[in-house]
């Protein structure tokens, strides 16, 4: 007779602690997968990233480029962003640039002026918002030369495809290197940082730049462009507005651009950002919505309350001018989720619409003040042709860039103090913004 087969319990199931450990491990893995792919995350990648090997630049410890990061606490996200594979994005962007045709250009007004922006009146600026005749020149800065070297100007003109731009004037921020760049990104993307003498002097003191006599100044990924800012505006913030909004004129041969405030450090490859937030969305511009405000008037009140601009009367005049010329508070009929952006990060396709918007907004900043969130909705809503804009989630912004505090400025002017009483009630506006405020506060005109 043959032996009868017998079955014994595997050793794996004889050990209760081992079974419990395996169950716990399996449950933990499921939970990790759920958290990774749940809607609370705002950015997703379809494949592992392709990073550069090693840092782009070694900073001396005295420079402190990574001090004072601002923590973020928001975890929920209603519209996450999906990044395609890096190599597929690189190939697609190259194809887009290779088949791009000559776009119908804007004509820019040319004349000599004591002001870089031409110093137009509010009514003159508004007259160019409806741009129906492409034969008419649009005021768009450069009414006096932009004071950079011929070497830098040639380098900027030779930049094609995608450019990442930032600026530091009056040593207001640190020069920080982008992180998470793909291995071919520096071959296909230009990085330009505009600085003045004060910023360049601090960089030299920390030995970030070995020689100022060299034509080509470079710190890691950034090509450094020295701007003789004393020939432009007295306000350093206004000088920073030039590369921020006139990037299409400074880099005439680029198709896309990303503006990065110097308080930010990019941690996602710019090719992935442009592809996901601009190309796939088929828009002219992408910018984060403001984390707190939805109405332009809310931003104006905060600008006065927190003394972000010292001339309170000028703020009142500015907002009254916009109310008088058709500015409306945000409502659900607008094709945008907010009237207030966080403009520290701006992604653009250099289309006619995006270039026109940038010119018109720059004109408002020169006409009033460099607080670019105040005229944003007025220009966007009133301009023609219309701008296609992607205002993405704040959580996306916080995951693609790290924000740091500005350098401490101990030389504050005690006379530049704003009154916190601005806009304390709607009578402050002499009736010009009364309708706006009543609508914003939910009051009925018929009550």
What does the model show?
The structure is a single chain. It is built from 16 helices and twelve strands. It has helices at 11-14, 16-37, 86-99, 122-126, 150-157, 185-188, 197-205, 236-245, 247-250, 270-279, 296-305, 312-324, 352-367, 376-382, 394-400, 434-440, and strands at residues 43-45, 81-83, 161-168, 189-195, 217-219, 222-226, 254-260, 264-266, 285-289, 341-349, 389-392, 401-403. A hairpin with a 2-residue loop joins strand 5 and strand 6 (222-226). Helix 8 runs antiparallel to helix 13.
Supply the key terms.
single chain; 447 residues; alpha/beta; two-stranded parallel ribbon; 16 helices; 12 strands; 13% strand; globular
Principal-axes shape call: globular
Strand arrangement across the biggest beta sheet:
5-6-4-3-7-10-9-11
Spatial extent as radius of gyration: 26 Å
| Poorly predicted spans | 27-39, 410-422
Number of helices: 16
Distance between the termini: 103 Å
For the secondary structure, the number of strands is 12
Mean pLDDT over the residues: 85
Largest sheet: 8 strands, mixed
**What percentage of the residues does DSSP assign to strands (E)?**
5-15%
| Helix content bin | 25-40%
Determine the structural class based on helices, strands and strand pairing.
Answer: alpha/beta
Could you give the order of the helices and strands? HHEEHHHEHEHEEHHEEHEHHEHHEHEH
Protein name: Transmembrane protein
Domain TOD1/MUCI70 glycosyltransferase-like: 110-406
Pfam families: TOD1_MUCI70
Organism: Perilla frutescens var. hirtella (Perilla citriodora)
